[in-house]
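Lab notebook, entry 983. We have the chain sequence and a SMILES string for pyridoxal-5'-phosphate, and the next step in the workflow is to get a structural model of the bound complex before anyone spends time on docking refinements. Request logged below.

Task: model protein plus pyridoxal-5'-phosphate, output structure tokens.
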Amino acid sequence: MEHKWIPNSSNEIKKSMLDYIGVKDILELYNDIPKEILINEKIWDNLGIGKKRPLDEIEVEKVIDDILNNNLIFKESKLFIGGGAWPHYVPAAVQYLAERGELLTAYTPYQPEISQGLLQILFEYQSLMADILEMDVVNASMYDMASSLGEAFLMSYRINNKKKILIPETINPFHLSVAKSYTSPHEISLVTYKVDPETGYADIEDLKSKSSDDISAIYLEYPYQYTGVVDVNAKPIGEIAHSKKALFIMGVNPTSLMIYKTPGELDADISIGEGQPLGLGLNFGGPYLGIFATKWNAEFVKQMPGRLIGMTTTIDGSSRAFAMIMQTREQHIRRSKATSNITTNSGLSAMIAAFYVSLLGKKGLKDVAEATWYRSHYASKQLSYLGFKSPLFKGEFFGDFIIDVKTNFEDLRNVMIKEGLLFGIPLSKYVTWAKDSWGLLSFTEVHSKSDIDLLLDKLKKIKGE
Amino acid sequence: MFKQAKWEEPLIYELGSGREGIRFKEINDEFKKILGEISIPKEIKRENDPNLPELSEVEVVRHYTRLSEMAYGVDSGPVPLGSCTMKYNPKISLKLSTDKRLQLIHPLQPDSTIQGLLKALFELQNWLALITGMDICTLHPAAGAQGELSGVLIIRKYHELRNNLNKDEIIVPDSAHGTNPASAAMAGFKTIEIPTDNSGNMDYEAFLSSLSYKTAGLMITNPSTLGLFEEKIIDVAKAVHEKDGLLYYDGANLNGILGKARPGDMGFDIAHLNLHKTFSAPHGGGGPGSGPVCIKNRLVKENIMLQDLLPGPVVYYDENDKMYKIRWPGKYSPGLMKSFFGNVQQLLWAYTYILSLGPQGLREAGEMAVINTNYFIKLMKDSKGYSIPYGSNRYRKHEVVLSAEPLHEETGVTAEDVSKGLLDSGFYAPTIYFPLIVKEALMTEFTESETKENIENFAKRLKEIENIARNDPNEPKKWPLNTAVGRIDMVKANHPKTITPTYRVNYLRSKGLRGPLR
Ligand SMILES: Cc1ncc(COP(=O)(O)O)c(C=O)c1O
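Result returned:
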């Protein structure tokens, strides 16, 4: 069957190639496959794969159009929802650069001399993240924040061989599930420390009582993605970890670090984060970007998972050059002794983050961070005037916060969907510590004051009815 | 002649300052009036501004455009990286997978609001199951290696639920990709490596004698990384099952048998697919990918089926509610592998590819990939510099591993030198030094996307390199000359005193604030 994506598929070319190979029938090329499992063409064609026949481009576009039109699409300004992925504006220049074919269709830069541009962009990604986090070493990406977390816990275990890790009660539940998948084969136990029910900050007394000498790490989510709270106790928590010769691991939102103290300054040993806010769409869950960083410490860097790009020169010293470094940690060399099995990572997402951070720059990124702060604080205050308990936790928060609507939140959310607004996450569906009346709301730079006021008006109307 | 762009492009940090790449017009003014200045508790307030660029939009676009001109993808020319299946990434799929209507769908939107998307994901799940001959798939894992980890975690859980706690060994052939043993180790297994016999199959006797009550499972890719079909696969599957082990199919090489044979029919219990290989999603300079995992739904023990152990969501159609819904993993699953559903953009690439080709086109793709490989082999048969170790008289499937060992012995020119010579003529190089069992390996995979002419030119260039090496073995050591830079100082790149993973380290080192990496 001739097809435009298969350039040798005309009968003429194909026959000339088969003749040259010296076979009459293509099946001869499969003569080592046991007859009983060779699949008959008729059967294959009628299994029900695709539409059982090739579709041309016009037909394909129509099918996909139907798929995309058959969803309720909310504009950014109508999405008041976070929980690990947030609506942010994706500038046109970022989207354009993401589609450059030389980058999009490249493989991992195994041949550095012909891949310098790709390598430099990844190096710039690592560098830009390093400056946002104030951490020295950043890898070239993991799949997403959840898998970064799983890998961070395994790294901690490799470094100090201890099998207990303390995690906050209000940890992102998706991250928790992934962390369990990654750590359970090694019998690492994840022990929860409480948060204060008033402020949402870590309960330091509880944390201290659980910090025995056998803990491998303390993990802090900063901000907590399912409460929005930014923990003022970050520094003491790190100090408790270090007093037990345990690692301090921080999970961050890169945007928030424009206005909050960084993991570097707070002396984190490993910092991970979700890069989705940096120019990646929501895309129903992926692809996103797992940020992974550590300190300037050989022991840590050697135990780091994933790829690292380094800056060096050509052998003749004539020009600056970039290449993959410290590859002896990786699976293609170390096999079962590798620091991780990862190879395909989130390279393009990392490049997109580099485009985004470069474009917004120091000022633009800070504007976004401040806008996120302002909008969430404004909304929270206005919601409290409407008679909701808002914010539920009184601690410092960034972007996201919980409100208690005193009736079933999911029901309210469903009414709001009919009004054309995606109003938050019914928390009790995802975490055990929430009541049915609690919802997690999210605000960013995409929400103008009139967008928020519209939301408030609709709520007022619904409450009045 | 090929000559790559060479821009001597500065780092983004070195490009000047004081400009704005985006302008959020007085974005916060209104709110400031109401709320006053931002008040952040001093314990956690950032006092310094980070060292980030301040550039205009045109400067940023030019910088990255220039850098992209010093990169090389399938859109630039042939990328015959073996085992990577660098096929063409159709532009219609790019258009559809980057559609704003997908970009705006939040991962926690209720199922009822995304019926169109769920229908497509449901169909894709089914198509992948049909293509592999398996029963049920989750589209969740983010890449092949994560699919593998999901698979070995399923194997672990399976034995745990059956109380076979002493099953702690996973068998892998020595030709396996490094991710296989690495994934097995991440799931807490020991790996047993089986040598490859002269015909290119896993050594059957060695395999049989490695089986024991400790065998938890086998991980294998078929066709292997040598491009050869495992001829005894059915017997292998039986033997593993007799020891109550499970068989894992590494689907990275599915392109070699697409439309011809299916892992489900060979006896595999679990399989992953690389949608960024066989199903045309792009590699993005390293990722993201997508690695769905499919299983044969066998009984684990009373009331528990293997599908209950899947570590990711599955879309199903609820006949009562007349709608598509997502079933999230339950209590027998090892847990999730990443946040949310999966890498949905990549899933849409695969969906579009399958839709466009249909079953006939998929078979054609598989066949043409195999014809291209064997055509290339025939072109190389008369060469003395390159040999084809293992099963030398067998037809290959998706790829072939040439060995430059004869050339190396004769002239000292290595597989690496050869690959630099290929770069100089405008080809990307094959995967080199892998699989580990072939000396001076040049693992070459054209896929169905390469033209006959390019394959011929590639073979011609290999022979030309061979001749140059014979005439002057020093010349290849100077290559590449036509790429943006020449060979790179990897000693400096990795030395504790000079290693530079970020600009920050470079800067702090220049200020005397960072010593050697110790
Ligand atoms: C044979 C084989 N198995 C597994 C993998 C891993 O897949 P991924 O890179 O998607 O993680 C690859 C590709 O790198 C491969 O070639």
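Notes for the group: The domain at 92-355 of chain A is CATH 3.40.640.10 (Aspartate Aminotransferase; domain 2). Worth checking against the assay data. The longest strand of chain A covers residues 215-222.
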